[in-house]
Amino acid sequence: MRLILSLLALLLALPVLAEPIVQSPDGRTRVSVSGDGDGRLYWQASRDGQPLIAPSPLGFILADAPKLDRKLAITGEAHSSADTTWDQPWGERAKVRDRHNQLILHIAETSVLKRRFDLVLRVSDDGIALRYAFPEQPNLKNVRIVAELTEFRIAGATGGRAWWIPALEWNREEYLYRATGITEVGLAQTPMTMKTAGGTWLSIHEAALIDYAGMNLQPAGGGMFRAALTPSASGPAVVVAAPFATPWRVVMIGDSAPALANSSLILNLNAPNKLGDVSWVRPCKYAGIWWSMHLDTESWATGAKHGATTANALKMIDWAAANGLCGLLIEGWNKGWDGDWFANGWDFRFAEPTPDFDMVAIAAHAKKKRVGLIGHHETSGNLANYEAQLGAGMAYYQQNGVTMVKTGYVADAGGLQVAANTPGTDMNGQPRALTYEWHEGQASARHHVKVLEAAAAHRISINSHEPIKDTGLRRTWPNWVSREGARGMEFNAWGNPDNGPEHEATLAFTRLLAGPMDYTPGIVSLQGRGQKIPSTLAKQLALYVTIYSPLQMVADLPENYAKAPGAAMDFIRAVPVDWQESITLAGEPGSHVVTARQRRSGQDWWLGAAGGKQAVPVDVALSFLTPGQRYRLTLWRDGDGADANPHDLAVETRIVTSNDRLSVRLAAGGGGAAARFEPIR
Ligand code: NOJ
Ligand code: CA
95: which of 264, 286, 492, 599 is 20 to 30 A away, CA to CA? Predict the structure, then answer.
C-alpha cells in the first residue's frame, strides 16, 4: 500500500502520505521521515513517546549542479533487521553485538534532473544513524559537495547541557572541553555530548569517515545544529564519484552518561576487518624517549641535549625490558628535527637516522631484549613530503623490526600541505604544487587510509597524533590502534594552561566515545616543566583503566619511577592493555568516571576511577564479578591526606564477591582510585 502511495507521490510530485517509520529493537526510539509541500524531506525521532529530534532537514548544496533538497519523493522503502555478534581482534571487548533495525528509503527528484539517492536509517537501542547512498546515475556522476544540509534539531535543548570543543580553530582538537547550555554551543567538533532538559544523554558523532570531509556542528540557535563539512582549499568540501555513501551521521542515546560510554554503535557502523589475519597487531605498554623532550631536558634536535642517541636508546631498551614493557618509542631519531621543525616539514627523512643514532645496533639490542621498537614519523603536517617517502619509510622500519609507528601532524589546523590534485597556479604563477588543507578535511581522510594501507603492507600498526577524528575505522583497518585527537598528557608538561583536574573525567564521555586515545598516563612524579600536574598519584594509575587504548605509555622518566612508591610501579607493570569486556559503571563529564574491565583471555578484573576538581565519593556494586567466586581485591586509592598531598597513595587488600560494593573517596584536585580483582582458587 505504502509503495503505491509512494509511486503516486512520485507521479504527482507530492510528498508521501504515510510517514515511513523505523524503531529500535527495544521499541523506545522511533525515527520517521516526513515531507513538506515543496518536497523537502525531514527526519525526526522520539524516545519513550517524547520528541527527541524535532523535524530536521536533509539534503546537499552542490558546486556545479542545483541544490538537492526540494522536489524529493520517496519512491520505495526496504526494511530489515539484524542481530549479529562479531569478534574484535583486540579491543575494549572481545565480542560486539550489533542489533538494529534498518530502513532504506529510495528517494528521487520529481524535477527534470531526476537525481536519486537512498537514505539509510539504522536504529539500535543505543542510538540512531543515517547516511546517504548515491547510486550510479546519469545526472550525478562527479559529485562536488559544498555543504550538507543534514540537521539535528534537539528537542529539549533549552535547559539542557552540552560538552564540546570548538571546530576549525588553530589548535585542531586540542582544546579544553566547554560545558555550556545546549543553546549556547558555538561551532563544535564531534563527538559533542549533551544531556537534554528531559534527562536523556545524547552524543552526536559520525562513523566510517572515508573519502569525505569530517562533520562539525554549526549551531543555528535554539538547539538546532547543521552538519557543517570541513572545507577544502581546492574547491568543494567533498569531491567524489557516484556510487558512494556518506559517513553515518550518528546520535548516540542513553539514559545515563555511562550508557553512552558502553555503546559500540560507532564500531558497529563500520565495515568489517579488511586486512585479514592481523595477529601481528599487538596491544602494548611502552616506554619512550619522549617525556624528557616535553620537559625540555632533552631535545628532538641533534646536539648536546639530543634524546635519541644510541647510548640512551640502549639504556631505555634495558629499562623497558626490566619492567616487562613490550615497546619503546623513540622520537627525534631521524633527520629533519634540527632548526624550526614545525615549519620545515620538507626536511623530514623517514629512512635516515641522525649520525649519533645507530639504528642497526639498537634494533639488534631491542630484538635480543624482546622489546619492540615503536617508530615515529613526525610530518609537521607535510603530507606531500611524507607520502613521497611512505613506502620507503615503512620498509625501513620493517627491516629494523619496528611493528608500530606513531605518526604526527603538528601543523596549525588548515595547514596540512597536500600535493595538489587540482590544476591552477600558485601565488608565484607556478603550476600549483600544494594545497593547504584541514586535519578534518577530505584530503586528510584519504591520507590516513593511504598510511594505514602502506603500513599494513609492512605489518605495521599506526598510532596517529594530531590526527583526523576517530570514527571507528579500527574495525575495518585493525592496524589503526590508537590516536591522540584531544589534549593529551603533554599539556600537563607544558602548563599554560594544563589540562585541569576534570579533563580525563570529561574525555570519558566525549572524545573517548569516538575510540581509543594515546593519552600517555603514568606521570608518577606529578611534575611538569615547573608546575605540578593536576592529579593525584592514584589517578595516574586509574587512567590506565579509564582511558581505553591498546597502546598505553608508561610515560614518566625511569628516575621518577625509581623514586615512586613500589606499589605504584607494581600496578603499572601488571595492568593489562587488552580486554575481554569493559563496563563504565558511573560518572558524569567533568565530575568522575568509574570503569571496570576484564583482562582478555583471563579472569581478573580491573577498575579505574578518575575524579575532578571536587572530591567525589564513589560507591559501585561489584556485580560485574562472577557470582559465587571470591576475589582478592587490591585497591590503590588516594590516601587520607591526598587533598593536600597528591602523592599520598594508600594500598589495601581484602576479599570480595559480586555481592559486595566498593566505596572509595576520590580526592579533590583530580583524585583517583584503581583496583584489581584476582579470583581466588
Ligand atoms: C606532538 C605529539 O602529540 C607529541 O607526542 C610528539 O612528541 C610531538 N608532537 C613531536 O612529534
Ligand atoms: Ca599533540
Answer: 286
* pLDDT above 70 for 7: no
Residues contacting 188, CB < 8 A, separation 6+: 162, 164, 165, 166, 167, 216, 217, 219, 225
State the CB neighbour count (10 A cutoff) for residue 622.
20
Separation of CA 553 and ligand 1 centre (Å): 13
d(CA 585, CA 548): 14
Domain with residue 435: its CATH number is 3.20.20.70
The answer to whether the CB of 410 is under 6 A from ligand 1 is yes
Inter-residue contact 503 to 177 (CB < 8 Å): yes
The CATH number of residue 141's host domain is 2.70.98.10
Taking residues 119-138, what's their average pLDDT? 98
Grid coordinates of 169: 580553530
In a domain, residue 600? The reply is yes
Look at residue 265 and give its three-state secondary structure: helix
Percent of residues in the chain assigned helix, strand, coil, to nearest 5 = 20, 35, 45
Helix (H, G, I), strand (E, B) or coil at 82: strand
Q: Would 10 be classed as within a structural domain?
A: no
Q: Which of 378, 377, 384 is nearest to 436 (CA)?
A: 384
Q: How many CB atoms lie within 10 A of CB 429?
A: 6
Domain holding 578, by residue range, is 516-681
The total of other beta-carbon atoms located within 10 Å of residue 391's CB is 14
What is the layout of strands, in order, in the sheet containing 29-35? 21-23, 29-35, 41-47, 50-57, 151-154, 224-229, 215-221
Position 431 pLDDT exceeds 90? no
Report the DSSP beta bridge partners of residue 202: 194, 253
Full-model pTM: 0.96
Are 609 and 673 in contact, with CB atoms under 8 Å apart? Answer: yes
The total number of structural domains that make up the chain: 3
How big is the CA angle at 485 (ends 481 and 490), to the nearest 5 degrees?
Answer: 100
Q: Whose CA is nearest to atom 2 of ligand 1?
A: 465
Cβ(408) to ligand 1 under 6 A?
A: yes
**Is residue 626 located within the same domain as residue 677?**
yes
**Closest residue CA from atom 11 of ligand 1:** 378
Over residues 67-89, the pLDDT tens digits come to 999 999 999 999 999 999 999 99
Grid coordinates in use for 412? 596549525
Q: Which residues surround ligand 2, an ion (CB under 5 A)?
A: 465
> Of 568, 620, 536, 24, nearest to 265 (Cα)?
24
Atom 3 in ligand 1: residue holding the nearest Cα: 465
